[in-house]
Amino acid sequence: MDSQQVVVGRISGLYGVRGWVKIFSFTEPRENILNYSPWQLSHGDEQIECAVAEGRVHGKGLIAKIDGVDDRDAAVRYVGAEIRVDRDRFGRESKDEFYWVDLEGMRVETEDGQSLGEVAYLFATGANDVMVVKGQRRRLIPFVLDEVVKGVDRESRTIVVDWDPGF
Questions:
Q1: Which residue ranges in the chain fall short of pLDDT 50?
Q2: How many CB atoms lie within 10 A of CB 108?
Q3: Among the listed residues 118, 11, 10, the one whose alpha carbon sits nearest the alpha carbon of residue 75
Q4: Gap between the Cα atoms of 102 and 70, Å rounded
Q5: Which residues contact 161 (CB under 8 A, 6 or more apart)?
Q6: DSSP bridge partners of 159
Q7: 5-89: which CATH architecture?
Q8: What is the pLDDT of residue 65?
Q9: Which letter does DSSP use for residue 163 in this model?
């Protein structure tokens, strides 16, 4: 796989006076973001590669120390930056595991081959993940393997679902 960049979080604020920043993570579990160093920070037109010197869970959030950033004044320039990592930094998923970023853009079709559109994005609910499929209309389809999702073909980039096209 090429070195596609994936947004895994953002720097949401400052923590303390020694250059630590607050992190809003999109990873699951959220602290996985700390394992993906180096980060590519994207803020406006600026792109900066940086290493994570330290990081940890703090209350309900995460905090991190960027290597070489030693005070609050130096850290403030990173607030609001998107955190990106190379896709190839993620581990290999098993047959029944999928990274959302890999499912986005896949075609979705019924078991009899009727096209429902493409996966625009996914989101988590308390019960299961949900695919937002955009085609002639927008559909919310639960990503439940074997029950709704009958197959994911990574090669053809197709997801086959047991789903009523009228719904």
A1: 1-2
A2: 23
A3: 11
A4: 36
A5: 108, 109, 110, 111, 116, 141, 148, 149, 150
A6: 108, 152
A7: Beta Barrel (2.40)
A8: 97
A9: -
C-alpha distances (whole Å) from 101 to each of 29, 72, 92, 123, 161 are: 15, 33, 13, 11, 19
Domain positions in the chain are 5-89, 100-161
Neighbours of 30 (CB within 10 A): 17
Q: Phi/psi zone of residue 9: left (φ > 0), alpha (ψ -120 to 50 degrees), beta?
A: left
| Per-residue model confidence (pLDDT) at position 94 | 67
Nearest to 118 by CA among 137, 93, 97: 137
CA distance 34 to 15: 16
pLDDT at 98: 85
Q: Tokens 């020694």 label which residue?
A: 18
pTM of the model: 0.72
- Give the span between the Cα atoms of 76 and 69, in whole angstroms: 10
Domain at 100-161: CATH code: 2.30.30.240
Chain centre to alpha carbon of residue 98:
11
- What is the C-alpha separation between 66 and 50, in angstroms, rounded? 7
Dihedral sign for Cα 141, 97, 4, 62, please: positive
